Amino acid sequence: MSKIYFDELVNAVENLVHACSSLTPACKSALCRAKAGETNANARFALDTILSNAELAEREDLPVCQDTGMAVFFVEYGNGVQFVGDFEEAINEGVRRGYTKFGYRASVLDPVTRLNTKDNTPAVVHTKIVNGDAIKISLMAKGFGSENMSRLYMLTPSAGMDGVKSAILDAVKRAGSNPCPPIVVGVGIGGTAEKAMQVAKEGLLRDVGNQNPDDTLAQLEKELLEDINALGIGAQGFGGANTALAVHIGKYPTHISALPVAVNVQCHAVRTASVTLEGRE
Prior knowledge:
Layout: E1 2-5, H1 6-16, H2 25-37, H3 41-60, E2 70-78, E3 81-84, H4 87-101, E4 124-130, E5 134-142, H5 144-147, E6 151-155, H6 160-175, E7 183-190, H7 193-202, H8 215-229, E8 244-252, E9 259-266, E10 272-278
Helix pairs in contact: 1-4, 2-3, 6-8
């Protein structure tokens, strides 16, 4: 069986953390398209400022946003590879080193005592076992201006897709300008309460605006994006045509008496990165 060692994962995660200093290429392209089509002067100014800020951050190697978020990882762990060491501790050590090295804000604390851990650990780690002899690690630096806008709706099946759409629109309306729009809206339909939330967040790893491989969900995303942008919240709450850059929907089988709908909002600062570590003898 091939092996991946503790220090390899630490170094990989440390490098992934640097994603906090740049927007993903797909996010930048979506923001540029939004600016090109925006007719509201204030909203256009906001989009121009967002893009200028991203350019400055990348050029000067500074964080795109002062909220460098909580480090969330989605891991695809190959069943043909052995990890040598404590897997989650390696991820946390990588986060610890990366946030310190790049001068990012330490935002993680004990929820009861409110004492800061001072190094942005622990991270949140979701692990899925897959076939193969490699480990793929995907980072999402999740700021809490958007995370605080998360909503879970436990609908009954009779609500149908109209109810699902109404719930998603309700979440965006309630969020307003708080998550620094234009946003990406992650949606999880089905599963249990916690599974729906995980599916919603995992959807935010998709490149902004990439078409859903499920034709039914792709159509639903298109309709919802139009409805959300018709709300007129707009870039940074200034109005205009760009409340959202994309809607990303995932689904999971659920119980016959349930229709969970989770909404996880991503601010305009999409900061994600992935790396695959190959096992070796």
